[in-house]
Design brief:
Blueprint lengths: L6 H24 L6 H8 L3 H7 L11 H13 L7 H16 L5 H9 L1 H23 L8 H20 L3 H18 L16
Helix pairs in contact: 1-2, 4-5, 4-7, 5-8, 5-9, 6-7, 7-8, 8-9
Amino acid sequence: MTVPTGRRERKKAATRQKIADTALRLFLDRGYDAVGIREVAAEADVAVTTVFSHFASKEALVFERDQDFEQRLTRAVTDRTPDEPLLPALRREVEELVRHCAADGANPVWRMIDASPALRQYEESMRLRHAESLAAAIAADPALSRTATACRTIARFVIDAYALAREAADPQAALDEIFGMIEAAWAATAAPRPPADLPGTSGT
């Protein structure tokens, strides 16, 4: 998670975290559908407008690290060293996301998400948005030199890798298998090199 540096930014981040933690506690205690935004605001001791200044919807309260995850994935592309291959950099971030989402205490949250059509729909739209942001970051890197279709496809594969590994009995083994397939797909999208000149020819 990105740590805010300024006093004002730290205060905003603390308020945001307090709202998210309060909402999640109420949702798990009483059920997602049984708790309204006004109740979250009252319990967190903030105004309803403050809740909406940090979270665009009730569903967003459950996925409070949404933007952080999205930024981390794109920065895995943009902030890697010039000699670092793309996929190992992305895999490190996916592994970290899986660890976070499979940590102790996460199961009740995922059971709540699975039981709510609104939360499942929000998660799906979030994953699609993350994939589009990741695809844009890959496409913007001239050193990677892939078509827009290849960039979007690989980005979808990476986002799906996170979801599949999170649900697997052995997340590490799942990532090994999935990223082996992603590596093969990425290699297959590379532009073919022009054939070398045959000995004794001028190349024309």
